Q: What sequence folds into this?
């Protein structure tokens, strides 16, 4: 194959000195074992883009596990080997991970299958990869330290800001690449090269995406959500390319949703700063992305994106009650207790979703008010306190406690003593007029 070569030594020297030394050491270890060692994939792409990447992927022409063990001896960290895949991982620190694979060829027995693997050379190892920008390798052995092999035009595509597959069946063989293409395009601000876009759309038309297990779809989707800065962009591309519809015909995403996704991070960040809380941002984003799915399809779409069944039921309950909630909160005077009762059954994630999803200033105001002011209100007294007041247990307990809570939410009382006094007074009044 035609190969463009560049020397990248200078770019490598710009890296922090510990990473540079690590690469030098990897090359020396390769020399000692008589193996060619390359750094490949995302690390090389990001090196060229001058972006930090602490996940370093090594490919060895030779036994990767032997290499990983020797490298581990030299650099330390925690080594994990996967003999069945001929791969190993060295975790050097909380943010630096070294992945080692033995150069291999992959082939697919049928579309969307997991690939079969056999030992090979660097070219084949690069050819099994997804996009040209992820297919460049830099040699680390001392005699050719820094020599880059670019067999597929990755450098040119980086310059043209282009995501390009290596061959036309790429998306058919592995439809997860559809998500990856979108994620990289969104993250890097690149475009899908014209034929790549066509191949991607052909794969969608052939329903390839439905051959993926929900687990694999979910994993890709979560990857996109985690890349929060480009999430709005990746969802826009998903819509533009028809990926949602390909996942499920009821997975409707319209411009309202995309518009709402734009501000979601800031809304969540704002609440976090005002009131320390530990809500799960991913859940909020998932609810927003599914916000226009018709109720009849909601469960099926949830099943694709979410594994946890309890969470699915919770999300659906809130999403199905959304219109009722909006209807009640649209008014300009809703009392505190109504807000409290209406919103209390919902998780913080659902409330963040309602807040972000609604256009109505009253609704937003009430939800924010609940989240910041009302959410934490709880009774400090219980049935035992009522017993100590000499009240005989019975249905009256519920009635008294509900009323005390209401008074507390409305701001009439605010502490333990206030609650006790209020309960006692109420009990005395009820004794006199039990049906009042
Ligand atoms: P990131 O910055 O998101 O970590 P990355 O390029 O390092 O990006 P990984 O998912 O860690 O992405 O994958 C490492 C390398 O493995 C990629 O650069 C790519 O070459 C290859 N790769 C990963 N997934 C696939 C896939 N589904 N098909 C082909 N090649 C893949």
A:
């Amino acid at each position: 194959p035609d190969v463009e070569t560049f020397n990248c030594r200078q770019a490598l020297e710009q890296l922090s000195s510990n990473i540079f030394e690590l690469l030098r050491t990897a090359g020396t270890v390769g020399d000692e074992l008589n193996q060619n060692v390359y750094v490949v994939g995302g690390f090389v792409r990001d090196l060229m883009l001058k972006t930090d990447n602490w996940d370093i992927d090594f490919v060895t022409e030779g036994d990767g596990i032997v290499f990983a063990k020797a490298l581990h001896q030299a650099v330390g960290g925690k080594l994990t080997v996967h003999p069945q895949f001929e791969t190993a991982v060295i975790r050097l620190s909380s943010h630096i991970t070294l992945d080692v694979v033995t150069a291999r060829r992959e082939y697919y027995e049928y579309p969307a299958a997991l690939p079969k693997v056999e030992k090979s050379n660097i070219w084949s190892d690069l050819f099994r990869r997804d996009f040209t920008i992820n297919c460049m390798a830099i040699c680390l052995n001392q005699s050719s330290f820094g020599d880059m092999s670019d067999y597929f035009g990755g450098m040119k595509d980086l310059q043209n800001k282009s995501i390009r597959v290596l061959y036309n069946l790429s998306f058919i063989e592995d439809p997860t690449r559809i998500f990856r293409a979108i994620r990289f395009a969104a993250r890097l601000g690149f475009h899908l090269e014209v034929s790549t876009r066509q191949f991607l759309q052909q794969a969608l038309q052939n329903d390839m995406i439905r051959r993926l297990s929900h687990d694999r779809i979910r994993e890709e989707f979560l990857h996109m959500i985690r890349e929060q800065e480009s999430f709005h962009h990746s969802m826009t591309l998903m819509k533009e390319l028809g990926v949602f519809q390909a996942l499920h015909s009821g997975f409707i995403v319209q411009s309202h949703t995309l518009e709402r996704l734009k501000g979601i991070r800031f809304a969540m960040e704002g609440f976090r700063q005002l009131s320390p809380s530990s809500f799960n941002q991913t859940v909020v984003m998932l609810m927003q992305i599914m916000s226009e799915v018709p109720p009849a399809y909601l469960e099926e779409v949830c099943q694709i994106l979410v594994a946890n069944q309890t969470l699915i039921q919770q999300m659906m309950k809130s999403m199905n009650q959304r219109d009722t909630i909006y209807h009640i909160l649209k008014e300009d005077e809703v009392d505190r207790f109504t807000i409290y009762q209406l919103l209390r059954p919902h998780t913080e994630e659902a409330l963040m979703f309602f807040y972000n999803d609604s256009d109505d200033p009253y609704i937003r105001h009430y939800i924010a008010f609940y989240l910041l002011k009302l959410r934490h209100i709880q009774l400090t007294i219980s049935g035992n306190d009522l017993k100590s007041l000499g009240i005989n247990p019975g249905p009256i307990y519920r009635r008294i406690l509900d009323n005390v809570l209401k008074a507390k939410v409305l701001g009439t009382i605010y502490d333990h003593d206030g609650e006790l006094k209020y309960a006692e007074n109420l009990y005395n009044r009820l004794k006199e007029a039990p049906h009042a």
